[in-house]
Amino acid sequence: MVSANKEMAIYCFDNLVAHYGGEQPPPPAFEDGNHPLFVTWKKAVNGAEPRLRGCIGTLQPHALISGFKDYSLTSALRDHRFPPIEAKELPFLECTVSVLTNYENALHCLDWEVGKHGIIIKFTDPDYNTRRNATYLPEVAAHEGWTTIEAIHSLIRKAGYNGAITDSLRKSIQLTRYQSTLFTMTYDDYVSYVKSTRGVAPTINGVSTLNGLRSVIH
């Protein structure tokens, strides 16, 4: 089974740095394959807990190399919930790559475990007779401290439904549960890796993406 790994996170950072510099990223150092995947960016400032800055991926199998190349930028620059990540934010970022596995049809909307399963819900909006769907990765409910029913209610809202959440609505939900492997890397760790393996720190137009950009911010 393919697992999320350090090389995938490095490739995502490589793509973002190359985007800001108008360059091509170095080739990836992991093997290709077809799996559902997500890229999550978070930002931490002044020692605070990292906060979400973008998270986009696909629930359908996708070529890993092109998938991480595409979604590293899409999640950083085109997540409609957030403004695009700017180059000056790089030193404060962390990247989590997720590879999804073990898809299973649940018996009902609470037939899953917090901290173990990610969930996909599909249901018909009773007010507009339209199909709605949404997903949370396995780590979300545990991080938020939700019970299964609290996570379901939040996910219903994430799907765009604003009406009353009734027993009837919950019973109509089709839920798919899945698991994932993930790997998280901070920008400092990325820079250290690049310096040790390539002999030089990442730069954008000749400016260090660590000390140089931090000096611009401060």
TrEMBL record:
Domain of life: Eukaryota
Domain AMMECR1: 1-194
InterPro entries: AMMECR1, AMMECR1_dom_sf, AMMECR1_domain, AMMECR1_N
Annotated protein name in UniProt: AMMECR1 domain-containing protein
Species: Lithospermum erythrorhizon
Taxonomy of the source species: Eukaryota, Viridiplantae, Streptophyta, Embryophyta, Tracheophyta
